[in-house]
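This entry is retained here.
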Amino acid sequence: MVTAEEIGRVAVFADLEPADRERLSRVVADITLAPGESVVNEGDERALFGLLEGRIEVIRRVDGVESVIGERKPGDVLGEMAIAFGMIYPGGFRAAEASRLFRVDLHDFQELASAAPELAQRVSALAHNRLIGPRGLQSRSSAPSPVRALVLGHRRDGSCAELRRFLDRNQIRFRWLQPDVPADVEQWSGGLPAEGDLPAVRVVNGKTVVRPQLRRVAELLDIATEPTAEE
């Protein structure tokens, strides 16, 4: 069970009245994570987390490649952007070592914030800094990711559409070229594959594969996800 004293060790809750921290301690969830376990998963309900012990990595996936873009240490919170902006979690959170944290569900946070508006203000200020501060998400994403693949195929070809959807789902930036558009043909360079070999994928500075299975595309682009059953 998380105690009122432990809740006070997390910075945004430190100035709450003892009675408020005591009430909060009765509704929060006490969570223990082993190294490598995730704090939240896609589609989870919005909640605010306070880290008591251990270390949490902030994970972001770009072009199918997972990277660590930050960390949270004891006394920090997680999920403030989801709470403040009503957005889905902009990144993943994973335990870098054995960790313990508490979860405040959205309705409990809102109830507490109505009685202690300064708490909502602190969480909003922190979320604002996470988003547009010098090291925030907007500054990280201001430069567009480079094109990693060229896709050559016809507009009405179902296989081409499936391939493009696969790349979109895995956040791979690509350029779609159509073999009957002269300007697109120039961008492909070299001889075009035969009609029966379309669609084709060319990894920038890499290989060209015709009529590829999605699993093969994932291998070429080092996509850190399992291809779907659509292949």
Summary: The chain is about 35% helix and 25% strand. Residues 25 and 226 are 40 Å apart (CA to CA).
